[in-house]
């Protein structure tokens, strides 16, 4: 398959001190890493694109490791998500190539997290913004961790690029109070509860 050609990488971490109510003991951190790569399928229809996922695995692992480090280490991460933005000469299916390499990389780096990694994707031009969903790493039903982080590159994706995203957070939404399964009660057996 084609080489993975990286044009640029961006790593961002935000800290949330409060949402209008009392500040939490520890600020919430939400972070994302974005990489713009050349889309080897841009401008044409290719039937077999799935094999490119294997080539993306090292990129996924590198991105996950860098993001975990920026978030404060494995023990700090409580939620995650992934996404992709496809340049205009590509198709949505090219963004779907990120599902396995991005998701499995985060689960591996985080020590075998159980929950499915939520995802989003879209086709867009330079400056396109993407809301990447976040859920608890071991139990998708933990409502306090339903969140999102908005990301994008000012100059990407170019028409012949893909922007792949991994995102993580260190805890629940600040001031969460919608009830449901508490993070402290997660069994982590099926990825749901």
Q: At CATH's second level, what is the architecture?
A: 2-Layer Sandwich
CATH class: Alpha Beta
Structural class estimated from helices and strands: alpha+beta
**Contiguous runs where pLDDT drops below 50 for at least 5 residues:** none
First-last Cα distance: 39 Å
Rg for CA atoms: 17 Å
Helix-strand pattern: EEHEHHEEEE
Main sheet overview: 7 strands, mixed
Q: For the record, what is the CATH homologous superfamily label?
A: BB2672
Q: Count the E strands.
A: 7
- CATH fold-type name: 60s Ribosomal Protein L30, Chain: A
Shape: globular
Count of separate DSSP helical elements: 3
Mean pLDDT: 95
> How many distinct domains?
1
Helix content: 10-25%
DSSP strand (E) fraction? 25-35%
Pfam families: AA_synth (PF06684)
Organism: Lutibaculum baratangense AMV1
InterPro entries: AA_synth_put, BB2672
Protein name: Amino acid synthesis family protein
Topology record:
Elements: E1 6-16, E2 28-38, H1 52-71, E3 79-86, H2 92-96, H3 99-109, E4 119-123, E5 130-136, E6 147-151, E7 161-169
Parallel strand pairs: 3-4
Antiparallel strand pairs: 1-2, 2-7, 3-5, 3-7, 5-6
Polypeptide structure, described:
- With 193 residues, the chain is of the alpha+beta class.
- The protein has a single domain, classed as BB2672 (60s Ribosomal Protein L30, Chain: A, 2-Layer Sandwich), CATH 3.30.1330.110.
- The chain has three helices and seven strands; from the N terminus they run E-E-H-E-H-H-E-E-E-E.
- The chain has helices at 52-71, 92-96, 99-109; strands at 6-16, 28-38, 79-86, 119-123, 130-136, 147-151, 161-169.
- Strands 1, 2, 3, 4, 5, 6 and 7 form a seven-stranded mixed beta sheet that branches.
- Helix 1 (52-71) runs parallel beside helix 3.
- The N and C termini lie far apart (39 Å).
């Amino acid at each position: 398959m084609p080489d993975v050609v990286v044009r640029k990488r961006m790593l961002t971490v935000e800290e949330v001190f409060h949402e209008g109510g009392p500040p939490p003991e520890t600020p919430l951190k939400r972070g994302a890493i974005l990489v713009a790569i050349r889309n080897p399928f841009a401008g044409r229809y290719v039937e077999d694109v799935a094999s490119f996922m294997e080539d993306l695995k090292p990129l996924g692992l590198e991105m996950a490791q860098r993001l975990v480090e920026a978030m404060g280490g494995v023990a700090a991460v409580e939620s995650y998500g992934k996404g992709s933005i496809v340049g205009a000469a590509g198709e949505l299916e090219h963004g779907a190539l990120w599902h396995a390499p991005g998701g499995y990389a985060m689960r591996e780096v985080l020590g075998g997290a159980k929950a499915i990694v939520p995802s989003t994707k879209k086709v867009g031009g330079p400056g396109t913004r993407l809301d990447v969903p976040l859920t608890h790493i071991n139990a998708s039903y933990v409502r306090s961790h339903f969140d999102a982080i908005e990301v994008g590159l000012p100059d990407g994706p170019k028409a012949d690029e893909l922007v792949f995203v991994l995102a993580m957070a260190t805890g629940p939404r600040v001031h969460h109070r919608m009830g449901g399964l508490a993070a402290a009660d997660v069994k982590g057996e099926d990825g749901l509860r």
